[in-house]
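Good morning C.,

I know you're traveling, so I'll keep this short. The sequence:
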Amino acid sequence: MEKLKLKIHPTFIVFAVVLIYFGQGFLFLNYLCVMLLHELAHAFVARNLGYNLSSISLIPFGVSLNLSAYDMSPKDEIKVALAGPFLNAFLCLILFMLWWIFPSSYNYTILFFYANFVTCIFNLIPAFPLDGGRVLRGIFRSKTSENRAVRCCKLINIFVIILLLGLFVFSCFFKINLTYLFVSFCVATGLFDSSKSSRYTFVKFVSPEKNKKVLKIKNLYVSSSEQIYRIYRYINNYTYINLYIFDKNNKLLRVMNENEYITLCEIFPATTTFEKLLKIA
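The tokens, ready to paste straight into the viewer:
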């Protein structure tokens, strides 16, 4: 699988310079560290589900994880989306335990705790492109059609935007809270980014080098209802796999070698089941 690349958007550099200029450099570093850990948690879960990651991009509003190729299943989209907030919550718990054992550490870690807490809560807002919105879209996709799921997400985004703008206007009568305005702008971008092209996807399967050094042969026993991309995690330079595909009655349908499998993966969508694949191929 291809290496994960880090890309820095030019506007992110401007954003960083402004924060540092106004004396918020340490806070910026804390949030940068937390956001990178947050997205790497997404990346870790995605890789373990068999997806081929392409890059992580630093943008003014945080970090964006890019995956190249076929669509994720709704179940996998939910798993990947929850990985980031789960890590942030876990780090908050670890810091609580650290403070209990070493109270003096509080002064050195409070900003890191706050950055994790805010990142977790912020990303759980049920509006795309935040993680909460991705979870919601995954749920909708599992219950209804793709187009209807996207429309439902956009309606929820509009509702959240109106709510946040209302809170911002309300705060203007007391103490202006620009956070509401910032979050509403971030959620507004989801109105133009919740289509098929914005989903956690990857472009194609990347085969290992042709001169792979095989140290062992691995036999995998696969249910015909399994989606083909889930097996790709087992492809590497040191193992040659054979697939034994069984139906729900444990009847052997076909034995497929690694070369056949990779060839079919380059032709058919990653979410195709082996059952459907055997009928077509």
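Safe travels,
E.
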